[in-house]
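Intended use. Records like the one below are meant for learning the mapping from a protein sequence to its folded structure. Do not use them to infer anything beyond what is encoded.
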Amino acid sequence: MSIITNINKLFDHRIRLGIMSVLMVNEYADFNTLKELLGATDGNLASHTKALEKAEYISIEKQFIGKKPNTRYSATKLGRKAFKKHIDALEKLINKT
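Structure written out for the chain above:
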């Protein structure tokens, strides 16, 4: 078995890695918070959250606060498991070299 077997290709991009990192330590984060923390554009963040949603790693909840739309994200059980597996694989890789 290769040392990089459990490295998840979906987390290769820094924005997706950042999204999951934020969601692993917070119950949820809204669009503007993620955008600010990660320094991402609206379109860039939207496409990366869509990729994570498609993989069922995050869930997206849309609501209105007053008259303003609000989108918030949370990591799913599957997403948490996949991300932990990815981080564990990275740690093993680092410790082996």
